Amino acid sequence: MTTATTTTFENPFFARVWPVVAAHETAAVRALRRENLAGLSGRVLEVGAGIGTNFPNYPATVAQVVAVEPEPRLAARAQAAAAAASVPVVLTNETVEEFRGGAPFDAVVCSLVLCSVRDPAMVLRRLYELLRPGGELRYLEHVASAGLRGRLQRFADRTVWPRFLGNCHTHRNTERAIVDAGFEVDTSRREWTLPAWSPMPVSELLLGRARRPS
């Protein structure tokens, strides 16, 4: 089942680019996506669903996915993916800042999205509010690297990268922001998804699970 609201956030260029990027994700990224969703159950909120890349990976123990995707062109692609998903997916065009979720969620999923929101601290506080006590935040995110790659990330963030890739900022300390929002990190690790010599500023990803304290 799918539905949508009328609130939108237009980004036509990124909406053309992202489906191509998502279709060519490395095997390592696809495996991390699956791991990020493993073991979920109950009612799940997915933030920044894009074209619905995660939808086929949700386990049968999930009762419902509410997926937030404010870009209308991406949302249209996500709606088709939702219709083919093996778990119920409800799609909304609201931004997460505006979203009112009703009953608290058992889990929130963020996949390559916290790098692109304008105010990560505010968004994470909102996600904290949307989770039930004891609920999980699952995250697979770009992460600030050290050394030469970190300098490359800072250069990319100051120049063309956010402009052409949906406001993506590659050098954010996302895990620090998660902790500052009140979450307790249960597990966390960094993974290289491209060779270490690759000049791409998004070669290193952070995979983790955090919890709203009971």
TrEMBL record:
Keyword annotations for this protein, in alphabetical order, are: Methyltransferase, Transferase
The record, for Pfam families, names: Methyltransf_23 (PF13489)
Q: Which SUPFAM superfamilies match?
A: S-adenosyl-L-methionine-dependent methyltransferases (SSF53335)
One GO biological process this protein is involved in is: methylation
Give the matching InterPro entries.
SAM-dependent_MTases_sf, Thiol_S-MT
Q: Which GO terms describe its molecular function?
A: methyltransferase activity
Q: Which domain of life is it from?
A: Bacteria
Q: This protein is called what?
A: Class I SAM-dependent methyltransferase
